[in-house]
Design brief:
With about 300 residues, the chain is α+β, with helices and mostly antiparallel strands. The chain has nine helices and 14 strands. The strands form three sheets. Strands 3, 4, 5, 6, 7, 8, 9, 10 and 11 form a nine-stranded antiparallel beta sheet that branches. The protein has a three-stranded antiparallel beta sheet with strand order 12-13-14. β12 (about 240-245) and β13 (about 255-260) form a beta hairpin. It is globular, with a radius of gyration of 22 Å. The protein starts with 7 loop residues before the first strand and ends with a helix. The relative contact order is 0.10.
Length: about 300
């Protein structure tokens, strides 16, 4: 068994010496990478990331990352050249970000969208470097490119400084599509709310129709006039009967069973026969304040 990682003591200008657990640095690195996998907007139009993380200690990266490709007393460097290497490395790191990820992919879901329509996947050529300067300050830098892929299979490569899409060979495109679809399948199996288009790319027509019914029901609910005394908030409030279990680490979903029943809820059914209580996967943050969640948490202790 590997020895337990020791916390790192760092000096804070205002608080003196503070202790930071090694695992916290791994989560910080994972979140920095995941949040940089974004849709095309602002500085992210090029689909490239140049991340700079000051004050990350050398010991933290040595304990959280694989052995560096090159190492000197002042510099450590890593490089994952192939897409396969990148995917293998990130499959263990990215879930620590707490976001919806799988392999080298992050699911991008806008707050206004009930389903996931775009996936961002890192390409080969991921580079990391940790440097200790002459004055003792430390910094970790991370550089990579990524592609975006939409629900209809449209693939968008990164752009060069002239805002022209980088050319990809047919074999590169085929490999990227294969990796993205494999990651999408993993996300779907973990309970991520993929759009109908994504389910059809995966060859799952049943799940595609369920997702379409889900979207149709949501639209019908938006268009139905409110009754006297009813508000949008009360209309969209439903009682959770019980929490049935937890989801994969990194997605933060919980399976819940809803109290009552209505035929329109069939669009959300995950299992069981029509007419029986509905169970769905919900984000932990949306159910954690309920009595059902408190009861489930207490039962796990």
């Amino acid at each position: 068994m590997a020895p337990a990682a020791k916390p790192i003591c760092r000096r804070s200008p205002s608080l003196g010496f503070v202790v930071t657990p090694i695992k916290k640095w791994a989560k910080a690195i994972a979140r920095a990478i995941a949040t940089s996998l974004r849709t095309r907007e602002g500085e992210f139009i090029y689909q490239s990331a140049a991340i700079r993380m000051p004050e990350v200690p050398r010991e933290a990266v040595l304990q959280n990352l694989p052995a560096p490709k090159s190492s000197t007393p002042s510099e450590l460097s890593w490089e994952w050249e192939s897409l396969c290497e990148v995917s293998h490395f990130l499959s263990e790191l990215l879930p620590l970000s707490g976001m919806a990820t799988a392999g080298a992919t992050r699911a991008i879901q806008r707050p206004s969208e009930p389903v996931i329509r775009v996936l961002a996947t890192m390409m080969g050529g991921l580079e990391m470097k940790h440097v200790v300067s002459t004055n003792g300050s430390e910094c970790l830098t991370i550089n990579f490119l990524y592609i975006l892929m939409g629900e209809m299979g449209d693939l968008y490569p990164p752009k060069d400084p002239m805002r022209r899409e980088i050319g990809l060979s047919n074999s590169e495109v085929a490999e990227l599509r294969q990796v993205v679809l494999a990651d999408a399948l993993m996300l779907g199996e973990r309970g991520a709310q993929l759009s109908p288009g994504w389910w059809r790319q995966l060859g799952d027509e049943t799940s595609a129709q369920i997702a379409e019914a889900h979207l149709t029901n949501l639209e019908m609910m938006r268009q139905t006039p409110l009754a006297d005394g009813e508000t949008r908030r009360t209309r969209n409030t439903y009682e959770i009967e019980s929490v049935q279990g937890g989801g994969e680490e990194g997605l933060g979903h919980r399976k819940v069973r809803w109290a009552g029943y209505h035929p329109s809820w069939e669009a959300w059914r995950l299992e069981g026969e029509p007419g029986t209580p509905i169970k769905t996967w919900e984000r932990r943050k949306t159910v954690k304040m309920t009595q059902a969640y408190a009861a489930w948490t207490a039962a796990q202790e």
